[in-house]
Amino acid sequence: MIMTRRTTFGLLIVAALGFGGCCAPRQSTEESESTAQIPLQSLMFGKNTSFTIEGTLTTLVNGVSSASIENSSSRTTTRYLGREVEGDLNGDGLDDFSFWVAQDAGGSGTFYYVVVALQNPSGYTTTNAFLVGDRITPESMRIRSDARELHVSFIGRACGDPMTAPPSEPKVLLLKVTPNGVLEGLMG
User: Fold this and answer.
1) What pLDDT was estimated at residue 45?
2) Which bin fits 33, alpha (ψ -120 to 50), beta or left (φ > 0)?
3) Mapped to the 3 state alphabet, what secondary structure does 98-129 carry?
4) Which residue from 45, 55, 91, 150 has the highest number of Cβ atoms inside 10 Å of its Cβ?
């Protein structure tokens, strides 16, 4: 299957149980950051928030967003998956948190993303959603505050495996938040 998402592929530091991986997505650093300001009391662990996916603003209400697709009877549905993790990702001393979302546009794939909510005195500001993969199995996340890194664990496919193959290879994707609030992959 050909991926139809606007994603630039490149090298990311991806590890599979401590070993180097391959075939990992790299998003452009030009992706716009989300400017949604969410008050602390209404965040509800990411279920009611806005962020950008592939440059399009997506707003979750009770953990779901559904939007029509131009010239199609299908809809794009984005769902909050949770599995939040807290820690300071931008070095300001406040705990930020990250969470998983999944997006289905009516095709054969389900695309999995990670979003970070950066805490500030008046609430949270979300980053862009970073594409982790298509038809993967999300596992867990860990924030290393000392390195300001988000470690995203998932089960993906081995290099060369077809998209129809079930995910079987453990991988870890390393992400950082730029000073402009954009979530991006670490380059080697």
Assistant:
1) 54
2) beta
3) EEEEEEECCCCCCEEEEEEEEEECCEEEECCC
4) 150
Give phi and psi for 171, each to the nearest 5: -140, 155
Tokens of 42: 């209404």
Residues 177-187 have pLDDT tens digits of 999 889 999 75
Q: If we measure between CA atoms, which residue out of 75, 73, 177, 80 comes closest to residue 125?
A: 177
Counting DSSP H helices and E strands in the chain, the numbers are: 0, 15
Q: What's the gap between Cα 135 and its chain centre?
A: 14
* Spatial distance between the Cα atoms of 176 and 53, rounded to a whole number of angstroms: 17
CA distance 104 to 82: 16
Q: What is the pLDDT of residues 108-126, one digit of tens each?
A: 789 999 999 999 888 888 9
Amino acid at 161: D
| pLDDT surpassing 80 at residue 104 | yes
Residue 22 pLDDT grade (very low, low, confident, very high; cuts 50, 70, 90): very low
Query: What's the CA dihedral at 41, 95, 66, 5 to 10 degrees?
Result: 160
124 within 8 A of 89, measured Cβ to Cβ: no
Task: Give me the sign of the Cα torsion angle 152, 127, 113, 23.
Answer: negative
Is the pTM higher than 0.85? no
